């Protein structure tokens, strides 16, 4: 019995340690985000840095986001068609597809793909700058690192993600449309009409809100882990992994929260 | 010696984890003088510099510049403090995404015209013996010694009143090392800057130092005028200056 009690205490203290560690990390991240955002609104601004980040995050993510949406949209239509046919409800395909894509798959998959590309790249770049003392050098060269490095990344990601997700939504629906009309015998005019009929403004708005929130977490996790990395190349590698994993978790978690808040009542 | 020192360190302490690096550093640097700090690898020389610059927060002690406490500055006050310094980092710390001239002109007023900034950068490159042909290269396209000189040009470009040189001559050939030493002497003499140099290079010490201090085991164990390093009976200084394996300084060869 004592052994069990002892184990239980050990497990509890391990869980307690984990929770406290997690809370401390959340505290540090919030402080980091607050500092970066505070600096994003006050001058001096770095418009050239912002444009550069918009290009890096937005433009160069278009192919990967577009392809993902195209493939998932088509696969989704195929599965909904198979499922729907069992209940003689194949006519629901366009409506279910557009709602599924715009409300969930477009933003979530778009967010995950961009996180894979961008959070890791940011963490690697800032981490290398940290371990080679370039971030320290900024401070001695009359430049605030938060303003110069972090703020443009956060702002660019929040601005650009809604556009990327909009593209993902359109391409995803289009992919479904192509499969439905080309393989499953749907009438193209009917398909498009039903799609537009079931698409509500609140679906699009929630999709864009999610995208902006995901963009924030993508940049925040990349910057936070890169900025804090220590210990040479291995440290930068660890920061990169942590950035991607934590960005994924924050995207999935905040998606759930927004979905429940917007659609759950 | 009633004059207020430009920089005064009082009982400065810093530790990382269980490793006590600075154990109460006391050091005064007078305005317009060139102070050189010597000491073995890993004794905390770079950490001491970064504490003064506000890049690392010390655990205890005071840092004063012109008699004003600058130990725990934040925000704008910290930025204003840092703007008084130029720093040559040990590894150069050049921005590898920017061209050489963008690096050198980084701390200059960015609202100036591009051509103007570029010209200013080329002037500063000339000071460290580099020609205009390197201006458009990337730092990664330069040799280690050239990177060091570009970093030096960048540190002095905004004409700061205090300049820190962290191992300015390591990795340079003896002739270029001498050029850099001359440059430091010139900066102190002509621009009336206060200089703090960290080095292992005794030729450098003899050339640039007005005064020398030796850091060992987290404390300043000796300080005095340049001529003093050869005359002192201090066993630490004697061992370091003459590069002897035997003596009070024990090197951890196997990372012990
Ligand atoms: N950010 C840091 N985190 C943890 N430890 C650090 C950090 N910076 C320095 N140290 C440790 O502090 C000690 C002193 O480092 P420092 O870079 O000041 O040495 P140094 O005297 O400049 O040596 P060198 O002549 O080789 O440059 C080292 O043991 C180093 O491992
Ligand atoms: Mg050092």
UniProtKB/TrEMBL annotation, chain A:
InterPro entries to which the protein is assigned, alphabetical: ABC_MlaE_roteobac (IPR003453), Permease_MalE (IPR030802)
Keyword Phosphoprotein set for record: no
Cited Pfam families: MlaE (PF02405)
Main location: membrane
Entry keyword annotation includes Transmembrane helix: yes
One annotated Gene Ontology cellular component of this protein: ATP-binding cassette (ABC) transporter complex
Keywords from the UniProt entry: Cell inner membrane, Cell membrane, Membrane, Transmembrane, Transmembrane helix, Transport
Domain of life: Bacteria
Transmembrane segment boundaries: 54-77, 154-184, 204-227, 239-263
Topology relative to the membrane: Multi-pass membrane protein
Subcellular location: Cell inner membrane; Membrane
GO molecular function, one term: phospholipid transporter activity
Function in brief: Could be part of an ABC transporter complex.
Family listed: Belongs to the MlaE permease family.
Protein name: ABC transporter permease
Lineage: Bacteria, Pseudomonadati, Pseudomonadota, Alphaproteobacteria, Sphingomonadales
TrEMBL record, chain B:
Keyword Nucleotide-binding applies: yes
One GO MF term: ATP hydrolysis activity
Pfam families assigned to the protein according to its UniProt record, in alphabetical order: ABC_tran (PF00005)
Annotated keywords: ATP-binding, Nucleotide-binding, Transport
InterPro entries tied to this protein: AAA+_ATPase (IPR003593), ABC_transporter-like_ATP-bd (IPR003439), ABC_transporter-like_CS (IPR017871), P-loop_NTPase (IPR027417)
All residue ranges annotated as the ABC transporter domain in the record: 7-241
Name of the protein: ATP-binding cassette domain-containing protein
Organism: Glacieibacterium frigidum
